[in-house]
């Protein structure tokens, strides 16, 4: 049997059991954006890196308001969310040069939402050849760059004029 060591996954496993509150509500209240992987704060939504990404540069856009229903948002809030999704794509293009993107929201547990009570959108940059046999055969994802390095690469691009 082949062993692949991924000790950082224990943090995810332990957090699933102890997670109290909503990360999309709690993390923006804190001032340590780098530590909490918040890349950009908009008027009605913010951009945060996925701490357990599918690929390097996996970002999420979440509204500040806690709700699972898109119908609860005003047009202004939905516009801010959309603008920040577009901003993420443009930043990722400039900083990481992906060849494509997966963009979307998982609404509800049956749709695969890990956090079902707070709408959020995923923006996942993709490259030809970035996904190989590992997810299919080994149920393993290979992320090619560390979170801190990716944060430091992306953060300044969000604030360029």
What's this, in brief?
It is built from 5 helices and 5 strands.
Structural summary, described in words:
The protein starts with 8 loop residues before the first helix and ends with a helix. The protein is built from 5 helices and 5 strands; from the N terminus they run ααβββαββαα. The protein has helices spanning 9-18, 23-26, 75-96, 134-138, 147-158; strands at residues 38-41, 45-49, 59-63, 100-104, 121-126. 33% of the residues lie in helices and 16% in strands. A hairpin with a 3-residue loop joins strand 1 (38-41) and strand 2 (45-49). It is α+β, with helices and mostly antiparallel strands. It has a 5-stranded antiparallel beta sheet with strand order 1-2-3-5-4.
Features:
single chain, 161 residues, alpha+beta
Give the strand content. 15-25%
Largest sheet, order of strands side by side?
Answer: 1-2-3-5-4
Decide which structural class fits the backbone.
alpha+beta
Helix content: 25-40%
Count every beta strand, where a strand is a DSSP E run of 2 or more residues. Answer: 5
| Number of distinct helices | 5
Distance between the termini: 52 Å
> Using only CA atoms, what is the Rg?
16 Å
Mean pLDDT: 85
Largest sheet composition: 5 strands, antiparallel
- Uncertain segments are 132-142
Apparent shape:
globular
Strand/helix succession: HHEEEHEEHH
Secondary-structure topology with pairs:
Layout: H1 9-18, H2 23-26, E1 38-41, E2 45-49, E3 59-63, H3 75-96, E4 100-104, E5 121-126, H4 134-138, H5 147-158
Helix pairs in contact: 3-5
